[in-house]
């Protein structure tokens, strides 16, 4: 096929999709952890 001969990036797509999932997940998980800590300490 024509389009398979001119590959721009030869990295594994699974790695890119894993990074694309983990980074937003880590961001929202960090926000959730911070909000939970603030909620716990606001009770004192």
UniProtKB/TrEMBL annotation:
Transmembrane segments: 21-41
Keywords: Membrane, Transmembrane, Transmembrane helix
Top-level taxonomy: Bacteria, Bacillati, Bacillota, Bacilli, Bacillales
Pfam families: YqzM
Highest rank taxon of the organism: Bacteria
Species of the source: Halalkalibacter alkalisediminis
Stated name of the protein: YqzM family protein
């Amino acid at each position: 096929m024509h389009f398979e001969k001119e590959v721009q990036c030869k990295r594994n797509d699974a790695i890119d999709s894993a990074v694309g999932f983990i980074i937003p997940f880590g961001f929202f998980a960090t926000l959730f952890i911070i909000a939970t800590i603030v909620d716990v300490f606001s009770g004192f």
